[in-house]
């Protein structure tokens, strides 16, 4: 299992808030998708690779 980062925890919270909004506006299917994604983020099965991708992009731009 992976480590849950603060960034992932914030995204899960954002997804849950968006799910509440979607459900309140009659879109239960979208709300379920957002809640499922939040559960996935909190499960530890998702790896946060944001920093690695950012470093790779920076490296590529320096090589130009």
Automatic annotation (TrEMBL):
Superkingdom classification of source: Bacteria
Stretches the record annotates as Disordered: 1-44
Comp. bias intervals (Basic and acidic residues): 1-17, 32-44
Protein name per the record: Uncharacterized protein
Organism annotation: Streptomyces fuscichromogenes
């Amino acid at each position: 299992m992976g480590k849950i980062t603060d960034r992932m925890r914030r995204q899960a919270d954002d997804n849950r808030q968006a799910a509440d909004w979607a459900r309140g506006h009659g879109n239960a299917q979208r709300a379920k998708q957002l809640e499922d994604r939040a559960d996935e983020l909190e499960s530890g099965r998702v790896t946060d690779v944001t920093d690695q991708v950012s470093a790779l992009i920076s490296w590529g731009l320096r090589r130009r």
